[in-house]
Task: inverse folding
């Protein structure tokens, strides 16, 4: 997040008053997180693009009715995204095919490195597939979209503690699936806790 | 706890790598989506601005001046009143608005004096004309309604004229004339083909005549004797069923001609024994048709004044409207 919550609220207020520039800023801030969350759920990039655009159009229409009242805008926006995904999955019943997944991050890596990275990504993908739907959704909102626990709770329509529990169990399952075990060397690498998507909540 | 944090960071790193590699949008797709969304946003915001500017003008369109807002209901009320008054004024005897019409006439009568008596007589003329017209059509309901109203108006006319001999004479003369007309009409109904209708109309007229006679009698008893005697005795001897009393032998009243007679009527209601005296007793109880409803004779003996001869009904002193219909 490069814009704090207060700035987001000001942008939202300006957009409600008809400021197109403010809405453009909101789009720029939230587009990639929204896309990531949707792509993690529908897998097919073209569907993710269409749904992301649809979410912002819906947000535009619903913006006059948005009232903060302590509800973070991110949570409200991701709730729209979540509903759009649910509707999409319910009506289209199509799911990802691995061949349709696009990878962007190989750069100038050699074939061996590319193979290692792809193997690791496939392992993560398989580990995610082993999670329950709610755990996977919590992971997507917290790690892929970068929402706070409160925003994720708002998006999922659950209590914040419930989301934390889902996240905790999801991480434990991922550890098992990915073979990340606690050993003596990691215990030595003690570091001070710092705020980020996985530990701020 | 600290060790768990280390491992969480490893998971975080792998998930972030996964998202960056496989969940990142195509920059071109992002640009296209942004263009579309922003175009939509501009359209929507512009539409909202137009709506805000249009709203005041739309709100002012139906605004009308105070005078016009007041005038419109008044105009509507005037039209409604005109239609109502017109409908009531045009109500025919026996119609649903006839009673309302009579009521309206009563409301607008002069307060008293000769003007009121004239107005009452004019109303009586109108009712007689309506009765005659209804009889000509064979409309029993119209005749009945007109004559009922006639009786009511006659009573009111008496009450208004009471105490003033001149007014009493005026009303009495009018009632005599009406009775003559109605008598002629009743006589003419016998020749009608529709016996039932003719009989019903005749009965109504007969009741009106009797009421008329009673009114005249009351006038006579109120001290206007000379005038009250007018027309009396034109009734056929009532035989056994006269309203003057069961099996009376006299006429329906002591008939006299202008109070110039010398005797008092025999039998009858005795109303003729007013101050002015009454003429010679007229009917002496014929009893030729004891079961038949007594009806006035067109040419009774002695001949009353005014002449009830139907042939004279065409030239009344006060010609009711529609009499010749």
Result:
């Amino acid at each position: 997040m490069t814009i704090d919550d207060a700035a987001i609220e000001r942008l939202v207020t300006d957009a409600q008053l008809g400021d197109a520039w403010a809405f453009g800023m909101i789009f720029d801030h939230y587009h990639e997180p929204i896309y990531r969350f949707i792509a993690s759920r529908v897998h097919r990039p073209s569907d993710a693009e269409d749904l992301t655009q649809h979410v912002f159009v819906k947000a535009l229409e619903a913006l006059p009715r948005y009232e903060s009242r302590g509800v973070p805008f991110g949570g409200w926006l991701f709730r729209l995204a979540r509903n759009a995904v649910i509707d999409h999955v319910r009506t289209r019943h199509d799911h990802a095919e691995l061949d349709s997944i696009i990878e962007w991050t190989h750069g100038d890596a050699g074939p061996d490195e590319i193979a290692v990275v792809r193997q690791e990504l496939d392992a993560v993908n398989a580990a995610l597939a082993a999670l329950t739907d709610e755990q996977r959704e919590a992971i997507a909102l917290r790690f892929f979209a970068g929402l706070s626990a409160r925003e994720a709770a708002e998006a999922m329509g659950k209590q914040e503690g419930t989301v934390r529990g889902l996240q905790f169990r999801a991480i434990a399952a991922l550890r098992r699936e990915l073979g990340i075990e606690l050993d003596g060397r990691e215990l030595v690498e003690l570091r001070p806790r710092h705020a980020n998507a996985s530990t701020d909540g | 706890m600290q060790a768990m944090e280390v491992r969480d960071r490893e998971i975080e790193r792998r998930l972030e790598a996964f998202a960056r590699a496989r969940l990142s949008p195509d920059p071109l797709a992002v640009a296209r989506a942004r263009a579309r969304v922003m175009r939509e946003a501009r359209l929507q915001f512009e539409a909202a601005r137009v709506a805000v500017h249009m709203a005041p003008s739309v709100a002012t369109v139906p605004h009308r001046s105070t005078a016009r807002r007041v005038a419109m209901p008044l105009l509507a009320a005037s039209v409604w009143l005109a239609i109502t008054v017109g409908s009531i004024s045009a109500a025919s005897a026996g119609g649903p608005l006839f009673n309302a019409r009579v009521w309206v006439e009563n409301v607008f009568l002069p307060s008293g004096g000769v003007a009121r008596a004239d107005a009452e007589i004019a109303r009586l003329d109108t009712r007689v004309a309506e009765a005659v017209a209804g009889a000509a059509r064979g409309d029993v309901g119209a005749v009945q309604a007109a004559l009922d109203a006639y009786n009511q108006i006659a009573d009111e006319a008496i009450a208004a004229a009471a105490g003033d001999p001149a007014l009493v004479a005026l009303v009495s003369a009018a009632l005599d004339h009406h009775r003559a007309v109605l008598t002629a009409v009743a006589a003419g109904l016998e020749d009608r083909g529709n016996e039932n209708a003719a009989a019903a109309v005749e009965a109504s007229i007969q009741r009106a005549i009797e009421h008329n006679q009673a009114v005249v009698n009351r006038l006579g008893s109120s001290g206007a004797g000379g005038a009250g005697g007018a027309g009396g005795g034109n009734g056929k001897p009532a035989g056994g069923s006269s309203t003057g009393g069961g099996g009376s032998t006299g006429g329906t009243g002591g008939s006299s001609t202008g109070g110039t007679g010398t005797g008092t009527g025999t039998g009858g209601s005795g109303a003729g024994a007013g101050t002015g005296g009454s003429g010679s007793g007229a009917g002496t109880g014929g009893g030729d048709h004891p079961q038949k409803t007594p009806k006035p004779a067109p040419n009774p003996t002695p001949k009353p004044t005014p002449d009830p001869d139907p042939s004279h009904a065409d030239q009344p002193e006060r010609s009711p409207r529609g009499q010749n219909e």
User: Anything to note?
Assistant: The two ends of chain A are 15 Å apart (CA to CA). Chain A has nine helices and no strands. Chain A has a mean pLDDT of 82. Residues 59 and 76 of chain A are 9 Å apart (CA to CA).
